[in-house]
Amino acid sequence: MTVDADPADVVSISEAATMLGVKPSTVYAYISRNQLTSRRLPHDRRSWLTRSEVEQFVQRKGARGAAATEAADSAEHDTAIAHIVEDQLRYRGRDATELAVTESFESVSELLWRDRDDQGRAWSLDPGLAATIHRLQDTMPPGSMPLDRLKVTAMLLGAADPLRYDLSVPSVISAARRLAPAYIESLPRRVSAEGSIAARLWRGLCAHEPGEEHLGLLSAALVVLADHGLGPSTRAVREAAATAADPYSAVLAGMSVASGLLLGGGSSLAVQSWLADIDSPASVPAMLGQRLRRGDRLSGFGQPRYRRADPRAALLLDLLHRAPGDDCRKAIVRAAVDLVRERRELEPNVEFALGALCFVHEMDYGAGEAIFVTARTTGWIAHAIEVYETNPAAGRL
């Protein structure tokens, strides 16, 4: 539970970590287990703790107990980038769903990479490199999925970067700012290199021109999908980074795992597919019944990391229904959610929301995978940087 605090009796997460002799990531783990209580100050979005509670916690656990808990937590919580606290996804202590509606995807990416908002940097691509990407993509088999195109481009960027083994933070971030623009250049719908990542990506995946609400929806999706803690694809990225693999190779490791049909991007593809089989809200029960009789998996519902509803899905579905779009398709989405909620007591997850976004706006098949990977690349890079900074094997130029 997050409660208001007395400004005279608070300590920051970093200060609490010093008092406890653990890492800040472990303090977040204590909060997620309700062992410590997160506090808020007026007009301050950061998380705080009361000094008295931390001091009592130190006495209760003792130095040896804290050290033991630190060791036990390290495998699962050894990151300061993203945590789920009280059913709320937080990026470096800030509510990700709040960031999604107040900040751009680029701004949140910079926050995850540097633990500060470093706006104003250009996310652009050299025209010569863009032309090379176009030539390579023109050799891809017709009908190639967007994710396949993104993988090929990530390999090309690594091969074209003579400084890819410079693992210093500025160099890795400089490389990272080229990835999303390069992904967009990989798509068959060639778009202007101007505008936000959300605007360029929408036009690369959808034939319909977006309005401000559509771009707000896609930008919010990119933000809430940017990271989700130490999931399978992120662990793969961290393993690669621990061997001093270059950032492009680390991202490719994450892409390979994220290609699975049970994870975010692949699951959204399944949702987009089964929603497209429904022609009206009234036919939702019959279609879902047919899928169950065939033994098909009903993708897009349930998220074990949240005790209640997935807050990312709740935000995106609300924005989806508020933005202009096909009313019949929106009604199909609502009917599917209502039916599963009633019969199986399951809430939609963010993969469902992503698939629904693609379905309602008739995006290219596989668009959800491209959105997911574009977003999650930000988190993967943040985790790679975190590993590079703590791994002595990751050399510097």
UniProtKB/TrEMBL annotation:
**InterPro entries tied to this protein:** Citrate_synth-like_lrg_a-sub, Citrate_synth-like_sm_a-sub, Citrate_synthase, Citrate_synthase_sf, DNA-bd_dom_put_sf, HTH_17
Q: Does the keyword Ribonucleoprotein apply?
A: no
Query: Taking every annotated instance into account, which residue ranges of this chain make up the domain Helix-turn-helix?
Result: 11-61
Extract the GO molecular function terms from the UniProt entry.
Answer: citrate synthase activity
Look up the record and name the pathway of this protein.
Carbohydrate metabolism; tricarboxylic acid cycle
The EC code for this enzyme is: 2.3.3.16
| Pfam annotation, one family | Citrate_synt
For whether the record's keyword set contains Phosphoprotein, the answer is no
Enzyme group, top EC level? Answer: transferase
Signal peptide per UniProt: none
Listed A to Z, the keywords are: Acyltransferase, Transferase
PANTHER family named in the record: CITRATE SYNTHASE (PTHR11739), CITRATE SYNTHASE, PEROXISOMAL (PTHR11739:SF4)
* Recorded family membership: Belongs to the citrate synthase family.
This protein is called what?
citrate synthase (unknown stereospecificity)
Q: What is the lineage of its organism?
A: Bacteria, Bacillati, Actinomycetota, Actinomycetes, Pseudonocardiales
